[in-house]
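Lab meeting, item 3. Inverse folding demo.
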C-alpha cells in the first residue's frame, strides 16, 4: 500500500530526535508512523511542507489557474501527482489556536484543485462533488496538542477534524477517516511521551493493505 505522509512543523521532520531546543513531538510521532508503515512493507512517501518551502498562500495566479482546473506551481503539481498515487494519506501537525497550521490549510487550498482532485456537479442533490482520487481509500490525522482531548472535542468542537474530514475529504467522498490525537502532551512524562511514540509505530506496523482487503 502506498501511504502519503504530509508533515507540517516549522522544525521539519528532521526534529524527530530528542535533542533539547531542536525537537518536535509532532516530528517524533510522524517519524514513528513512517517507520511503522515501512516495517509493514508499505511504500511510505513523505511530504515535509517546511523542508519543501511550500507556501500556503493562494496567489492571484493560483486562483485563476484553480478556476480553470490548472496549476501554475510545479510543487503543487508534484503534490497532486503523489496524492493521486496514494492509497492512504496521513496528515501530522500540531494544533495551534484550535486548528491546523497555515501550511496544512494551504495544502488543502492549493493542492485540492477543482477539476483535478474533484469535480463539482451542478444542481446535484446532496453532496455536489465527485472524487477524482479514485485510488485513495482513507485519510488519517495525527494531531498534537496541549489541550485536553475532551476539551478540544466537546468544548471547541474538534475544528481540525471538521475541516479536514467533514469539510474536505468527506465532502468529496473519501471514506475511512480516522483520528489519532496526542492531547495534553506538555503534561505527560518523558516515559508517557515515549509510550505514545512506540504505540504509534506499532499501530502503523499493523496496518494491512487496503487494496488486498478490498479484493476479497
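The presenter then showed the designed sequence:
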Amino acid at each position: 500500500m502506498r501511504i502519503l505522509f504530509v508533515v507540517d512543523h516549522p522544525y521539519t521532520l528532521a526534529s524527530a530526535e530528542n535533542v533539547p531546543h531542536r525537537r518536535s513531538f509532532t516530528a517524533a510521532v510522524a517519524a514513528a508512523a513512517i517507520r511503522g508503515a515501512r516495517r509493514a512493507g508499505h511504500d511510505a512517501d513523505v511530504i515535509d511542507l517546511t523542508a519543501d518551502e511550500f507556501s500556503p498562500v493562494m496567489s492571484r495566479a493560483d486562483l485563476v489557474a484553480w478556476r480553470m482546473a490548472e496549476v501554475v506551481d510545479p510543487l503543487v503539481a508534484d503534490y497532486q501527482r503523489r496524492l493521486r498515487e496514494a492509497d492512504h494519506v496521513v496528515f501530522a501537525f500540531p494544533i495551534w489556536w484550535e486548528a491546523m497550521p497555515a501550511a496544512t490549510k494551504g495544502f488543502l487550498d492549493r493542492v485540492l484543485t477543482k477539476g483535478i482532485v474533484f469535480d463539482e456537479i451542478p444542481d446535484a442533490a446532496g453532496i455536489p462533488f465527485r472524487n477524482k482520487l479514485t485510488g485513495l481509500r482513507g485519510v488519517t490525522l495525527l494531531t498534537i496538542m496541549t489541550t485536553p482531548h475532551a476539551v478540544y472535542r466537546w468544548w471547541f468542537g474538534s475544528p481540525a477534524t471538521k475541516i479536514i474530514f467533514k469539510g474536505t475529504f468527506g465532502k468529496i467522498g473519501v471514506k475511512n477517516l480516522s483520528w489519532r490525537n496526542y492531547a495534553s502532551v506538555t503534561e505527560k512524562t518523558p516515559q508517557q511521551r515515549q509510550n505514545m511514540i512506540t504505540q504509534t509505530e506499532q499501530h502503523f506496523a499493523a496496518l494491512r493493505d487496503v487494496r488486498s482487503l478490498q479484493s476479497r
